[in-house]
Amino acid sequence: MNKSSILEIVKTKIIEKIQNFEALIADTRASNNDTKSSMGDKYETGREMLQQEINNLQRQLNEALSQQAIIQKITAESSSRVQNGALVKTDKGLFYIAVSVGEFIFDNQKIMTISAKSPLVKAMAGLMKGQSFSINNINQKIKEIW
Q: Residues near 90 by Cβ (< 8 Å), separated by ≥ 6?
């Protein structure tokens, strides 16, 4: 399994996410400037709603920037234990432990990206190939770790 390609896919997804949030913030700010009118309270309410939307987008952008900082520290080196940067195959799926950016297909296999802080990773942290763990009363066995 080519972990360096998987790492690059995750990095690209985060960059796209950041660019998307930056564009949404810029567009929302532009529409905020276009709402000038003499409508009084209605105008202020509209501006406040737009400001809340900008704040929400800014929080999401900050989270994406935080994910980018985390992923920059991850290497493509192989692992023998479940840890940050490991690609783990269980009997239930294939998981890349880094940051959560959803799932994608790589080499005809669905890979789910998950945060090292997720309950699933906490349940299997430090385990090795062949060991089992349980989460939500579902037993899983680690088949492979890269």
A: 124, 140, 141, 142, 143
Which pLDDT value is given to residue 34? Answer: 61
Sign of CA dihedral 36, 39, 40, 44: negative
How far apart are the C-alpha atoms of 66 and 89, rounded to whole Å? 26
d(CA 43, CA 110): 48
Distance (Å, whole) CA 101 – CA 91 = 22
Whole-number Å distance between alpha carbons of 142 and 145: 8
Q: Are 136 and 93 in contact (CB under 8 A)?
A: no
Q: What is the mean pLDDT of residues 138-146?
A: 96
Is the pTM higher than 0.90? The answer reads no
Kindly report, residue by residue over 66-98, the tens digit of the pLDDT: 999 999 999 999 999 999 999 999 999 999 999
Judge whether residue 145 has pLDDT over 80: yes
Give the tokens for residue 60.
């999401």
Q: Which strands, in side-by-side order, build the sheet including 87-90?
A: 102-106, 109-115, 93-98, 87-90, 138-145, 132-135
Q: Are the C-beta atoms of residues 18 and 64 closer than 8 Å to each other?
A: yes
